[in-house]
Amino acid sequence: MIAALGDFSFDLLGYTMALISVFFQTMYLVLVERSGAEDGLSSIEIMFYNSLLSLPFLVFLIIVTGEFPSSLSLLYAKSASVYFFVMFVLSLVMGIILNYTMFLCTIVNSALTTTIVGVLKGVGSTTLGFFLLGGVQVHFLNVSGLVINTLGGLWYSLAKYQEKMRRTAIPK
């Protein structure tokens, strides 16, 4: 929120969509954590059920937004390109690995830990974006928001580590 205060190109719709996305991602991770812990499902089984349950919503959104015909024609036009095929397969593999590791992190740790790791990844991406992509005015509010975000993530990680050490230090 502090970094957002310094955003001179403030877009209410953009920030609203970002908050809605964060809310649904949190609910999603809690659901993954509960289904994995309560039902004893593995990361691969959760990925399968997630894909199966998400497919009708994705198809609905593609049809409603009108992207279905244009995406099919684009896929047909690019299908002969080896470069497109390699990039398509790489994108699929990276997406599968990302989802697998996210589900595994959520099952092994917790939904909160996965969220904090995601926030720390976002801080790293944002910082790299400042330097590599440009187009953003770096000023005190941006930097202080990122620093507070990073310190909060590190503090949480330290607290979880200390909690784990305390549990292993207590003889049973």
| Total count of strands | 0
Please state the overall shape, judged from the principal axes of the Cα atoms: globular
Query: Into which percent range does the helicity of residues fall?
Result: over 70%
Low-confidence region ranges? none
**Total number of helical segments?**
7
Fraction of residues in β-strands? under 5%
The N- and C-terminal alpha carbons lie at a distance of: 44 Å
Biggest sheet record: none
Secondary-structure element sequence? HHHHHHH
Question: Pairing-aware structural class of the strands and helices?
Answer: mainly alpha
What is the mean predicted local confidence, pLDDT?
78
User: Radius of gyration, Cα only, in angstroms?
Assistant: 20 Å
Q: What does the model show?
A:
With 172 residues, the chain is an all-alpha fold. Helix content is 84%, strand content 0%. The protein is built from seven helices and no strands. It has helices at residues 2-5, 12-39, 43-64, 67-78, 82-108, 111-132, 140-169. The N and C termini lie far apart (44 Å). The model has no long low-confidence stretch (mean pLDDT 78).
